[in-house]
Amino acid sequence: MNDGLQDLYREVILDHNRRPRNFRVIEGGRRHEGFNPLCGDRVTVYLKVEDGVVRDAAFEGQGCAIAKASASLMTEALKGLTVDEARKRFAEFQAMVTSPLESPVPDLGKLSVLAGVREFPTRVKCASLAWHTAKAALDGDDAPVSTE
Ligand code: ZN
Fold it and tell me: Measured in angstroms, how far is the CA atom of residue 40 from the centroid of ligand 1?
């Protein structure tokens, strides 16, 4: 990856950390909590699912820049997807952040900026926390998510 692209990626992450999108509560929807003890990231994900479609997605929480930016980008990415598409996107995202450093970055739109965490194995859990939490919310799983 060239430096210009890396700067762009860093900029997107910093922007979403500073001004997280959909940082709010959704009343009456699905709600799930997740925790990454390794870094201390905490996230609550809210999803409004109607007729098998994610109509709205939001989150609240505290964490490092990667965790917040990832949650913010995720809420934007999930809105409007069917539940099946959302599960597929989760799988694609997981595959991307856990793939070897030298493998090509898949085109997942803005989510591709988070491929940068592959260089920092401890950050992979920060980036995937919100996704695991959203997956549990989609699955209707009651247990809180922990990345450990
Ligand atoms: Zn973190």
Answer: 6
- Please state the domain extents for the chain: 3-143
Ligand 1 centre to CA of 79 (Å) is 24
pTM of the model: 0.93
d(CA 56, CA 63): 22
Q: What is the spatial distance between Cα 58 and Cα 38, in angstroms, rounded to a whole number? A: 23
CB 5 within 8 A of CB 31: no
The H or E element spanning position 24 is none
pLDDT tens digits for range 43-68: 999 999 999 999 999 999 999 999 99
How are the residues of the chain apportioned to helix, strand and coil, as percentages rounded to the nearest 5?
Answer: 50, 20, 30
The answer to whether the beta carbons of residues 107 and 92 sit under 8 Å apart is no
Give the span between the Cα atoms of 6 and 76, in whole angstroms: 21
DSSP for residue 104: P
What is the Å distance from ligand 1's center to 50 Cα? 31
Instruction: Please give the structure tokens belonging to residue 102.
Output: 């030298």
- The fold of the 3-143 domain, in CATH, is Sufe protein. Chain: A (3.90.1010)
